[in-house]
Amino acid sequence: MSAPLPIFLQRSPAFGWFWTASLVSMLGDAFRIMTVTLWLYAASQGNGVVMAAATAVGVIPTFLFGTLAGVWVDRWDRRRTLILCDLLRLLCSLGLVAAAQSTTLWLGLVTLTLLSGVSVVADIAAETTIPRLVAQDDLERANGLWVVMHQLSFIVAPLAATWVYTTHGAAWAFSVDAVSFLLSALLLRFLPPLRSRPVGNHMHPAVLLDLWTGFQVIWRDTLIRASLLAVVLRVFGAGVNNTVMIFLIARVLHEPTTDLAWLGSANGLAQVLTGTLVVAAAQRASLPLTFSWGLGLMVVGAVVIASAGHLWVVIAGVILTSLGNAPANIAQVTLEQRFIAHDLLGRVKGVQNTLMTLMFLLGSAVAGATIHTLGAREWLWISAGFTVAAFALTMRSILPQVSRTARAVL
Question: What top-level class would CATH report for the domain 212-404?
């Protein structure tokens, strides 16, 4: 049973330092993402190729290094890895400052590519650090605090970044990002050493064999395999929505495209609300309960969006989806942290993140290529179908295994 929040924070001081460092870093991330969009659009005079390139450089490193990054994270001390990643990203942010001052687009894109590559390692290291800092019973609450922190950063920072960019320019905004990485690295020094420990034969010196171990964990374990499939189904639907939503607003509902911003704000606020509720209810809510009502709300929200005839109905659907998305994500991460050995978690997360990125891009690309043939509403119904499939798989395969199994980690 999870302890009350004040007791949890008192007995997990290392998690407090880690959460604070991550908040500072994520605020800088959100600051940079908004600034990159504004700067590249202005510097390239609205060049679509440049904007597409900026998206590509954020994704390509995950394809190239996602699975290997999981192996490296499992081999290294996570505290040192996180600090080193922050310092490397600090240097990359200073590169963005130089690119903005000289209006050198190629330097900006190269720097973004390097920064994205380092972030692949940092993100896996951060997520797999949580189970090393808190007790098993506190994982759901810790992951809830993590989701709240992430969403808060993307509500507050973009507005501040827009103000700094408008009043002082892109170089100053990128400087804020650089400072955030420095502060995060300093805060992470308060963490204890987080060295990897051998698990059977799994810490083999050959990287490829370590990578193969990650695939074996997924393939041999029916619970983890079903969980990964459910995530992939959800992510494909998210990729579809990412491309199609603006077409729904402009061509089906005949509303201004700028109304898309309302959906982003509704999404962030709703996820903060439900993430907070999960943190508050962690003493009483079980993992199956959090999973089922989270995915259930996502199904209802997806159906509302697909059938919407007015913008306010779309906003309501987005709010419902977001209210479910936060607890579903918290439950998903908690499941992985409980049922996968800590020293194998990085490998599994590396494989998972690579597949998630691939499926998100596939959903986005296929929907974009056929939007004039099928139409926005038809694609949203297809997306809702993928969400229903993820819900059915979770209810019929994943939750029964979780409920009847109090098994030890692998």
Answer: mainly alpha
